[in-house]
Specification:
The protein is an all-alpha fold. It is built from 10 helices and 2 strands, in the order H-H-H-H-H-H-H-H-H-E-E-H. A two-stranded antiparallel sheet has the order 1-2. Residues 1-9 have low confidence and may be disordered.
Length: 228
């Protein structure tokens, strides 16, 4: 690994959580709320608001918990802080979208309190960064989840209800099976497969370009040595 690559890895990048380590399509760490909860675009919006606020505020606050506290106790504290944050967040969602959205999503809103960005990534990655780099990276992870969740909710809303939220979108057919958990699993699976295929193709193309450039540089250097 080059020095420049090591420096980027140490600082962290928002694109990691958005693409390379997307917690739904690449890592598969938080698929439950998307597969079972985001059955409509409105449900997806409620999940996105809950996930974004609970995760961001909890990570920001828990960063200041002393690391000299035993690891197991720290994790418990993170969960308690997230549970406290959950209360005003749910009140906010209720004010913004009404109780129907909360009931529709069901248990998949409380589940966000124990999401892996809070209980896992904080200790293994986020809290190892400087505060500014940590904030950029957590925003990348949150954006990665939010985009996927909204996309899944929109696709299901169109193919189940012929609408996106309040807007009518008639595609000429419906797929009621997508409303089920199994249907959501298939949809997210197909999206993950396509996403990884595109990512790997782009990555391989970049590697091939780098190798070609390196090969050209070596040939140029050898030519210069021979001429000299």
């Amino acid at each position: 690994m080059s020095l420049q690559t090591e420096q980027r890895a140490a600082k962290g990048r928002p694109s990691d959580g958005l693409v390379r380590q997307n917690i739904v399509l690449m890592s598969g760490l938080l698929t439950g709320p998307v597969i079972a909860g985001a059955t409509t675009f409105e449900n997806a919006v409620a999940i996105v608001i809950g996930f974004s606020l609970i995760t961001l505020i909890t990570v920001m606050l828990c960063r200041f918990i002393p690391r000299k506290i035993v690891y197991t106790v720290r994790i418990i504290i993170y969960a308690v802080v997230a549970s406290i944050i959950y209360i005003p967040v749910i009140i906010f969602i209720n004010m913004l979208m009404g109780v129907t959205a909360i009931v529709s999503v069901g248990i998949y809103l409380p589940v966000l309190v124990t999401n892996p960005l809070i209980l896992s990534k904080t200790e293994t990655r986020l809290f190892l960064r400087p505060y500014g780099s940590m904030m950029l990276e957590i925003l990348g992870y949150i954006a990665g989840f939010d985009i996927v969740c909204l996309l899944v909710g929109a696709v299901r809303d169109v193919l189940i209800n012929s609408q996106i939220g309040w807007m009518r979108v008639d595609v000429g057919f419906t797929v009621p099976a997508l409303e089920t958990t199994f249907g959501g699993f298939l949809l997210v699976g197909v999206m993950a497969g396509l996403f990884r295929a595109v990512y790997n193709k782009s990555k391989n193309k970049k590697i091939k370009t780098m190798l070609n450039n390196a090969s050209k540089e070596r040939i140029k250097e050898n030519t210069n040595v021979v001429v000299s």
